[in-house]
Amino acid sequence: MNIAPSVLTADFTLLSEEIKSIQDADYIHIDIMDGHFVPNISFGPMITKQISTLSACPLDIHLMVTDPLRWIEAFSASKPAFITIHVESNDLDETIRAIKKRGIKLGLSIKPGTSLEALEPYLGVVDLVLVMTVEPGFGGQRFMMDMLDKVKRLVSLRKHLHHPFLIEVDGGVNQETIGLCRDAGVDIAVVGSYLFNQKNRQKAIRDLR
After folding, report:
1. I need a labelling partner for 139 at 20 to 30 A (CA). Which of 30, 34, 104, 195 fits?
2. pLDDT tens digits for 91-100?
3. How many domains does the chain have?
């Protein structure tokens, strides 16, 4: 199980120290919100670029925005491992091409209310599928257990298609829910509030793994 701390709940007045405290993570998850696609605003490419200079961890950028196409070039400057966009967003096909053109791995995400059928046409080209296990926009929400049914279905589809995309979950992951994620077939778990509330975050990352 790979662990991707979400810096959305980090203390940005102590950004360097916060990033150092999670240096043993597999990825750093960057939640980008535009106040339109979800009812919250986070930060933009300049802060993301600063984070990329503070850690050797690969970045996992999650664009929770209505028009991701306009942001691909700016966020590509941070040289992320993944850029994940939502199937519910605008200009989906064109945005996918823009990500692929830059040699960045493609992630696709679905909100809890979106069915897997929306993803299926893209499973042959996607590198990562992110299943939201809370309603996107705010940290600290309760894990939606029924989203694990989607994970299990994706595991089955992956085997059927012989296409090794990674499966990621985001929202409400903690010491209690991480085992359920593992058993369902999750490859990467995004952890936010739970991790940043721990005094020893490196130990917490090891325990979650």
Report:
1. 104
2. 999 999 999 9
3. 1
